[in-house]
Amino acid sequence: MDGGLILKRAYVAAFFLFIFFPLGVTVLISLDPRDYVFGLPPSISFRWYQSFIENDTFVNGLTTSLIVASISMIISTSVGIFASYSITRSGKGFMKNLGTYFLSPLLVPTLVTGIALLMYLKQLGMLNSLINLVVGHTVITLPYSVRVLTAVFSTLDPSIEEAAMSLGASPLKVFSKIVLPMIRPGLMAATIFTFSESLNDYAVSIFLSDSNSYTFSVALFSYLKAVFDPSIAVASVLLMAITVVLIYAIEKTFGLDKVVGMW
Amino acid sequence: MFIIFLEIFNLVPSIELLLRRYAVYLLVIPGGVFLALFFLAPLSYIFVVSFYEYVGLKPGYIGGMKPGFVLDNYIQFFSEPVFLNYLWITVRIALVCMALTLVIAYPVAYLIARARIGRWVLALVMVSFLIHPLVRVYAWEIVLSEFGPVNTILEMLRLPKISLIGTEPAIILGLLHFLIPYAVLTLIGPIRRVDPSIEEAAMSLGASPLTTFFKITLPLTSPGLVAAALLTYSLGVTAFVTPLILGAGKVVVLTMLIFDRFTDTVNYPFGAAMVVILLIIGLVAVVLIDYLFKVIYRRRPVWTAG
Amino acid sequence: MVEEKVVVENVSKRFGRTVAVDGISFKVMKGEFLTLLGPSGCGKTTTLRLVAGFYKPDKGNIIIDGKVMNDIPVYKRNIGIVFQNYALFPHMTVFENVAFGLRMRKTPEDEVRRRVKTMLETVGLAGMEERYPRQLSGGQQQRVALARALVIEPDVLLLDEPLSNLDLKLRLQMRKEIRRIQKRLGITAIYVTHDQGEALSMSDRVAVMNQGKIIQIGSPTEIYEKPVDSFVADFIGEANLIDGRVEMVEGERVGVRVGDTLLETTADHLRLKKGDEVFVVARPERIRPSREGIEAVVEDAEFLGQVRRYYLRLTGLDATIKMDLVNYVGEEINVGQKIRLNLGRFAVVKKDGG
Fold first, then answer.
1. Would an 8 Å CB–CB cutoff place C54 in contact with chain B?
2. Is ipTM beyond 0.95?
């Protein structure tokens, strides 16, 4: 049995070495003063952090990303609240199928969604890349918010809403005074989900960006293809930090355990 | 005339009643319409465009496409061996990744579902899951580069250096890093649903831990395995940035060809046809894998409901 | 004059193909405690929800205080509901829970405070104002739910199996408690339960329901003593149903032959005629060993604490009946022994379809 335990631990260790070693190397590169890769950094320097901040492409991309992620997050969660509430509360056959309909963008690779939107929006003459990015990101984030929120709503006891109604609360009051406060943790999780999904997207962004508006992912992508520049490592470290913060936020508000299987 | 007016007036309260009664159904409309307009319609449009004619880049023809119904694009793809070869490479990489991912991910998912340290392992898996895909690719590009840590270590051990960038193994490594967390998270639920006392019962009846695993745990979690397999396969087939960067242009997969037709050598109809082919090879495999698992475990009994 | 507070008039409700409530009518007087009693699926909860306004009747009218309420939504009726699972608002304190209904009615804040305080005292929860529902025991949550429903001074209080989540001891205590508060406030109440003990001990009147219909409505004693059919007889209390035939009808007096014995009773409400096939409803606790009467053989005996229960096979009849003896001091009764029985006060019901 002891041997089994050692084997287990060794397996986990090897697994996480595989997962986190490359990321650790990236952190080291970001602190390496040299502009090439060779062994351990001789000293620690924030030179690349400096050049990252001074890089207009990165800063513009990050700004656009934050704007796009915030707007699509707001649209996805608010539209998602209504849709999920409706799906879980009506509970009839047709409405149950609507649940699948709302999740359908998950079945299609985002690359395909991006291409489809590129052609479609061009054909419609929608050429504002910022709007197009928001539309695209809403399409890919809406299923996540619907998935989280239907799960949340289905744990709510409908008789609580009925109780509120019997006490004189109109449907609108029931929603604002009872339902919304009760789903607050789930709502937090949904916003975090959609935000991080928007931030992590590159496939839709690549097709919908232009020189006016491009996301952080697109900026990163263009650098990745072109040159070896350790400021990409700095960008990576920034994104990793954001990820850790988001995970922490999910754990604090909703519990990581509950979101397993929702992605 | 006046009577009709009165009738309508009489209807008003019942309309209000109707609205109140069906208000909950109306709430799906904004999201439903949005997805119809900006997801279903564009997706259908791709199918339509895949049958359009390519007339070259001329003013008035977006993406060089001219409405029509021709099979040229599909014929072109399937008549040229080079495209078929790319298709095969795409599928091959996805299949290898799928198999390796399942083997590596299952024990981790099992540990998260059953062991006490599961919580921490889960948090770390989640972190790795949400790391930006481009960040991973960049990390692997460095790790596998000519003077990167892998070669540094090999040198210290006085072993010959390897240059993986631009090879299939590099792409597979990068994809594994991306796919394993997906598979782990998909498998946790199904494993959790297996009541540990069922395994204990098997062992009490004389089954060794290994037999218990293959005869009890694995079959009971097979729906989850199928789900994880389908997910990793389809993510593998449609992966784009990992093959692009780690393949360094020396290994070409379908998504890269598609990307090219919509960005550099613009040809929307041919690109759309390849998108349809990409979706189909995803689907074909989905059906095949599903069938395979059904045969192996004679699936579809009650536990699949869980 | 006694006011009619709630009138349910020939109301039907169907869901898809199932008829949940099938043309029922009843009245609840001001200050009355009416219980809808029946097995699960009999339509009692649907009836309650129709009165509450969660459903709209397909046919018939729901009238409260003389006004037809069919098209009035729940939140515009003035109704207090206590739910089976209490349905407390988990994100609000006890005070906020109870104050919710008053706030919805835009009651001035000082009045809200005063009324919530009084109500919490009434239900015995003074000092618990700042707790959250999850910090309360089941019984306390129940009291909050009651206070929340009562503080708005509803026209009618509806209770949907409110005691079914409590343990036995608390359940017995809350029966008395709910009844005490209801009487003190003089509130009209409709109570839904499948527990006949609750129904009999709490109610002014009981409506026994089955398959979407009201079978019998009356005071607990009436229902117990004079069931209208074998369903009611069997559902309320323990009952032995023994085959018999009417042999004599003289005014109220009825003679029923069971085996070779002729039993006499009064049955004014059944309009029996000579030759009717009936069941004799004999309550186990009223049967006594006797010198004369129906002959039976003791088949089995059980010790149930206070009670000793005997299973008796009636001679000449294909029936086994139960007899419960409490503090029995007569001759010892052994298995296999032949005894004669006095059925005590019994009722007669027509056989179904008769």
1. no
2. no
